[in-house]
Design brief:
single chain; 701 residues; alpha+beta; Rossmann fold; four-stranded antiparallel beta sheet; 16 helices; 71% helix; rod-shaped
Length: 701
Amino acid sequence: TAEVILEYSDDGRVYKVIRRAGGVTENIVREEGRPSPYIGRDEVNKVVRESLGLDYRNMMETFIARQGSLTSFIDDKPSERRNRLIELLNLNFERVREDIQRDLNMLKTRLSEYKASVSNIEKTFKLYGFEKVSKEDIASRVDELKSRLRDLEEESKAIEGEIKELEDRLMELSSSKAILSNYINRIDGLREESKRLNSELYRWIREEFSIDLVRDILDTIELSIRNLKFNEERLKKLNEVYDIIAKAIESRDRLKEYQSKLDGYKDLDDSIRRVSSRLEYIKGRREELREIINLLKAGVGECPVCGKPLSEHERDRLLKSYLDELNGLESEESKLTSDLSRLNKLIDERDSISRGVNMLEARLNEYINIARERLKDLDFRKELSLDNLDEVYKAIKESLERLKEFIDGLKENLTRYLKEIPPEYESLDNVILNLKSSIERINEIQREIIHLGNEVEGILAKLNISSLDGITGVESDLRSRVGELKNRLSSLNREKGSVESRISELERLVDLADEYKRSKEGIGELEGRIRLLSKLDEIFMDRGFPLYYLEILVNRVLTDYVNKYLSSIYPEMDVSFKASSTGIDIEVSINGRRRELSTLSGGEKTILGLAVRLGLGEIITRIHARGTRPDFLIIDEGFGPLDEYNRIRVSEVFRKIVESGLYSQVIVISHEREMMDSNYFNSIIEVFREGGVSKLNIRRD
């Protein structure tokens, strides 16, 4: 019921207790017509319990049977009975099905989202070259990239070290070049001074001496000087060619060394192809073995390969064999992966050596061409080629030794010629002194030139270069090499950045792999729940479980409970309820004879209606036995059409209901004197009105 109100007066006070289904409660006490501010809720409740023997907390859990509604269930149409029963028992199967379908649609939407997430993640992994979503594969790829990154860093450090050495070498060459330029400029200045002194010496001799006396000596001296200059220049050029050929021989030997190394790499590509091919086979075979092993672990009864039936022992033996093969393949794969990484490093080494070979070949050809042109200018008798480098080198060395001996002879002859000038020309003492001074200066210049030449040769020997022009060539080569190394270093840095970016991207894939796992698990869980809800949706169709449940509840339970109460009130009557998808039919028999409902008297209908209400009340009570259930039964004027005999029998039923514990209290509201005089009730509360206020007269047994 929606509202229960209890109002009575006692001790000059008017008590009114109201309980509403919406949860609103009121406790009102009036003294002398006005609300009392001194009596609180707890005292009102105490008065209710002590005066009436009622517990107000049970008043909302009440099943009320009124006279006007006792026969309504009997008089209803079958469809109305069905709807009334469903409403009374809160059997809202349509709403249950709506909830199921709503949840089903929600789960399908979530399933679509999970599948879309799984699909997107799988596409992302394929974009990164993964056949499947696997954190282990990511870790393996990251390890490979980190290994490559370490290799790149090591190579970068090596290149940076080489660049530092080359730049130090360039600084040394630049410093030495400046020193050599000063020395050479000094030598050129000394030679100019020597030339000037020789010219003055010749002029003095020609002017101060008798031409007839000294002409032969002067001619010899002049010829010796020209010969000396020519051979010194030739010596210088031969030295330069000698150094160039020495560098060509060095480049040729290094070229042979590099070509020998390249020969060791000739089978490298075939090895990589073999290792890669074997790895591809292992990957395919590994996946095949894993599928077979999973089937064997699942306990299949036949061989996954040939279809032959397997006993448990044969399956275990076959499983062990395949597991051993899989472990062997994984070990081989790990070794081959390491070999492949090593082979790729060798490829890089081979490419670096190949570039070195190309550079050395170009440098060697350049040296040979320069030396060949300079030998032509010197009218050297041997034609220079790659095949006779050592022979020409040896011939030039011999020529240099002979030329140095020849120049030393010229210098000795020149000194001797100067000493053989006739001493009897005493009149020319001053000229001779000047000549002597000039000759001494010439000798001093020659010694300084030799000293500076030795310094130059020492610097060039330290630099392992034959001439100043050679320094320029070496500088050019070094700068070219530094440029190549810096380009390579820049390329390595770009590759390192790319590898680091790739590692970062792969590490982010780990989160996607976790999400993928959660989504896959969610898909499995959702599909299971969808299957369950789909089955429940089928079950809760109108002609499914709802009809079955209603048939059991009505045809068996309700029939049994109603007949139980009829057996105590009116044993001559027997009733049967039949539920269908359209309604609930009632069949009544009295003394074994079928009776139509329309032929029942008012008293018979009242008895049947009361039995139906009591049966429904017990069903509701037992349904809610473990939760909040009706605990309070009120019969409000339910005995109008009954005679005294049947009213007494009904009262007996109420007493039995109380004794059974089905309800904690049963309240009967009646104007029938037989009920008030009955000894079946523990308490009788007589209510009468006096002066506009309800009065109570309470009697207890």
